[in-house]
Amino acid sequence: MNYKLKKWQLPFLAFLIIGTILIIRQQNTMPYHHNSGFVFGTVYNITYQNATDLNDSIKAELARIDNSLSPFNEHSVISAVNRGEDITVDAMFAEVFNKAAEVSRETDGAFDITVAPLVNLWGFGFKSGVQPTAHAIDSLRRLTGFSKVSLDNGHVKKADGRIMLDCGAIAKGYGSDVVARMMRRMGVKNFMIEIGGEIVTSGVSEKRVPWRIGVTKPTDDSLSTSNELQTVLNVTDKAMATSGNYRNFYYKDGKKYAHTIDPKTGFPVQHNILSSTVLADDCATADAYATAFMVMGLEKAKKVLERHPELMAYFICDDEHGGNSVWFSPTLRDKIQK
Q1: In this structure, what DSSP letter does residue 335 have?
Q2: How far apart are CA 295 and CA 272, in angstroms?
Q3: How far is CA 206 from CA 23, 29, 78, 198, 239, in A?
Q4: Which tens digits make up the pLDDT trace of 17-38?
């Protein structure tokens, strides 16, 4: 069939062609910006393509999160809650609290933001040089458990006023989500946001290829000087978070203790997962499940993943021969680069 353009259609077609060319040219010439800094006790690195630098807007968003969720900020919402003040929490706190409650339910309590007192008791590196006593652990376990806190009409209700909340295992991921939302509101299509290793990506990198993120090979490297990669994942238009015990541990009487505390036992976990990487649609979810899986161990984590096909996981484990083995979700296979 022979189609013939009418005269009035020619200018319109030319306009479309020229417009498309200009858009492509703009995308190819628009610069990528790189901003970094310090927040939540860790480093952030953000790369994005935009006509102007958005560093001030990024800092403003991170300040909002810090004022809501940072336990190191005495003026934050969570600090006020932990002091027992009867305040109305902000939208950020409420969103994170509800997400934490959801993941806690789905993991049978393996993820629990009330575990803060136990984490403080153990401390990193046994600062006191003395292992906590069974009595001290049992006392604090009575202050641990998501069933002992609730959010009622904007107010946190505690079964015991001494209960404290710590969102450290979800706040960095949530922070990456918040900055990503800002980028999308401002029309930014290509970006990679990383806060303390918790990542959200969109579009393509500066090299015009999908975002590829490495998973570090587990080594007894408490100084974090080793950057050897176990694998590289394509995480374009996804969020990714990793939790690992191989860099956060301490020895006592010849025994290695991980930094992840099991909320139910009050002791550091002793499972064989060294590194838990989770991909999800949002980073708060990925962050929380990555921590929960470290607590649960491989077999229980697999059962959760069966119920949640929207999640993908990559686990590096100790094997019975003293080496490392890998297990990953079947749906993750196409995202593994090497």
Answers
A1: G
A2: 10
A3: 17, 11, 37, 20, 18
A4: 655 554 445 556 799 999 999 9
